[in-house]
Amino acid sequence: MSAVVTDHEHEHHDHKPSGIKRWLYTTNHKDIGTMYLVFALIMFFIGGAMAMVIRAELFQPGMQFVEPNFFNQMTTVHGLIMVFGAVMPAFTGLANWMIPMMIGAPDMALPRMNNWSFWILPFAFLILLMSLFMPGGGPSFGWTFYAPLSTTYSGDSTALFVFSVHIMGISSIMGAINVIVTIFNLRAPGMTWMKMPLFVWTWLITAFLLIMVMPVLAGVVTMVLTDKYFGTSFFDAAGGGDPVLFQHIFWFFGHPEVYIMILPAFGIVSSIVPTFARKPLFGYASMVYATSSIALLSFLVWAHHMFTTGMPVAGALFFMYCTMLIAVPTGVKVFNWVATMWRGAMTFEVPMMFALAFIVLFTIGGFSGLMLAITPADFQYHDTYFVVAHFHYVLVTGAVFSIIAAAYYWLPKWTGHMYDEKLGQWHFWCSLISVNMLFFPMHFVGLAGMPRRIPDYALQFADFNAFISIGGFLFGASQLIFVAVLVKCARGGEKATAQVWEGAEGLEWEVPSPAPYHTFETPPVIK
Amino acid sequence: MALKHKPLTFKLAVTALAMFGFGFALVPLYDVFCDLTGLNGKTAATAASADAALIDTSREVVIEFIARPNKEMPWVFKPEVRRMTVHPGEIHIMNYLAENPTGRMIVGQAVPSVSPGQAALYFHKIECFCFTQQQLAGGKNMLMPLQFYVDPALPSQFSTITLSYTLYDVTSAWTGDTAASSQLGE
């Protein structure tokens, strides 16, 4: 009997089931991390294809390719997929892969729940994408699903939309609980709070934000569902409700959500910049405090999305000042990254290039955010392409660039091979040029009054939009180079050392490359 | 799961559940906040007391009346006059004309809104058809009264107050229960 048990344990220890079962049943943080990352990449291309439809339609004024209703579905589902399907799962994938290795833990604390939180995700997006093929089409009310657009005026795909958001929310909450429990309980002996890598810190704070606001999102979609199908009147004035209430609840979730999508990016850049500057991070403690204050402030600024709803002056001033206050901790971070590079022995491999582009372009997005925070100016900018330019600078050249930087940075650790540096540099320069062609002119057309989410536009915007669309197509095509790099690197290449990068420090660089299936089964000793 | 993870996992799961509840708690909290501050242009849903405050004859305030039926509401619905000039403290009656041009009984519910929102706290309704649901048989018409006064404490920067009513068709939700129906005016 004892022999059987030993045999059984032995099997679990070293082997993994082959084929599809390995991935379906896996509780290994590296497998789950890989699945999250691949899933996010697929979603990035699906959401990107929708962006291509949008840009094709906007290439010329007038209606060319799609019906307005389909255009609206594209803007809506593009937003939902990029936020919940690409950026958030990519960060969760990075957390799964890296956090246990960074804190010297053998795995995530709750491995079975980890399997669940990944495997419900494909179904959520299957439901959302299938709704596009329903009679009447998929959700078309914008990713913000404002009532009454999503209640009174929406089609029956709304029910599918609501359920898919519920599933995404449950997945994120489970993932966040797992991250917190792992970081609290599984740090290697000697890994004190202020010795944790910043990626771990930023993810810990992100996970708390997720637990605080994802349930509120679940609540508000539930209210939309009951308003639409079960006769409640949360947002219906006829029954005593209030449509503006929807915006308050949504943005109470929505604003912390944008920090959920950027705090892990700060952690990534704080890992990459010291490596390639060959200097320790400048101002580690201030980074931790800045991240925490951004997270706290994120709960006090939601109504800056609603300045035009007719808010009293006192409210507008409160939200305007709180919003501007966020620039202070964010400025601390940018200052620290620049100070880290100051007099460093810098080299410019692809991860560093993307991190540098992040610092510059994210700051541009931050500045346009400050412009939008000024209440009287916001009345001009509200719902124009200026807003689109702002949030794409912080989300594409911010969050997405950081994820790409992280992929290049840790790819040798994941695959055991160096990626093709030359191809990677091509990917970087093509992305950098095209992304600015795509989003920078949107500032100008926005300031000139071109409204967002509309399939047609006034003739004077024609040249700018043609240029923007070309930038969009080029940016989309540039990402195919990324796929080429990934495939090439997974298949083979120059053997990577354990440390990979000359200046890299941290526990993840002490295990061999590729990282073995099980790492740190006995906790490392932290000096 | 390992035993040492249970307490923390449990606490975090409870926090998530509590935040789900908090999302719903925001609904009444929002109403309470609006009632207390008068932000959002919400007026009181119940009658103000009729003891006339001091009439301030030195000051005039213009009250504008807007009334419109909701898109799905077939009634004709309009105020007797579009605007009136009042002294703060004076009690006035304003009649709204409602006409049901269809052949069936329809129940209506008017939802008020005051602009600018900050003036909503100072606009008192002693009696209003918006406190309850109104039913009107097909082909009939009626006058619906509103009795109101403007609080003399109205801050001096407000010289015009606009009172807007949107009338909704609530026939399908009508139960005939007046206690329940007066709730809907909130």
List the SSEs and their pairings.
The complex is a heterodimer of chains A (527) and B (186).
Chain A: H1 2-14, H2 20-25, H3 29-57, H4 68-103, H5 111-119, H6 121-130, H7 157-185, H8 198-229, H9 243-260, H10 263-277, H11 284-297, H12 313-325, H13 327-341, H14 350-373, H15 375-381, H16 385-415, H17 421-447, H18 462-491
Helix pairs in contact in A: 3-4, 3-5, 3-18, 4-7, 4-16, 5-7, 6-7, 7-8, 8-9, 8-10, 8-11, 10-13, 10-14, 10-16, 11-13, 14-16, 14-17, 16-17, 17-18
Chain B: H1 6-37, E1 61-69, E2 76-79, E3 83-86, E4 92-99, E5 106-115, E6 123-128, E7 134-136, E8 141-150, E9 160-169, H2 178-183
Parallel strand pairs in B: 1-9
Antiparallel strand pairs in B: 1-3, 2-4, 4-8, 5-7, 5-9, 6-8
Q: What is the tally of beta strands of chain B?
A: 9
User: Which runs of chain B of at least 5 residues are low in confidence (pLDDT < 50)?
Assistant: 178-186
Order of helices and strands of chain B: HEEEEEEEEEH
Integer average pLDDT of chain A: 94
Instruction: Determine the number of helices of chain B (DSSP H or I, runs of at least 4 residues).
Output: 2
Transmembrane segments (chain A): 36-56, 76-97, 118-138, 158-186, 198-225, 245-269, 281-303, 315-338, 350-374, 386-411, 423-444, 464-487
Protein name (chain A): Cytochrome c oxidase subunit 1
Subcellular location (chain A): Cell membrane; Membrane
GO cellular component, one term (chain A): respiratory chain complex IV
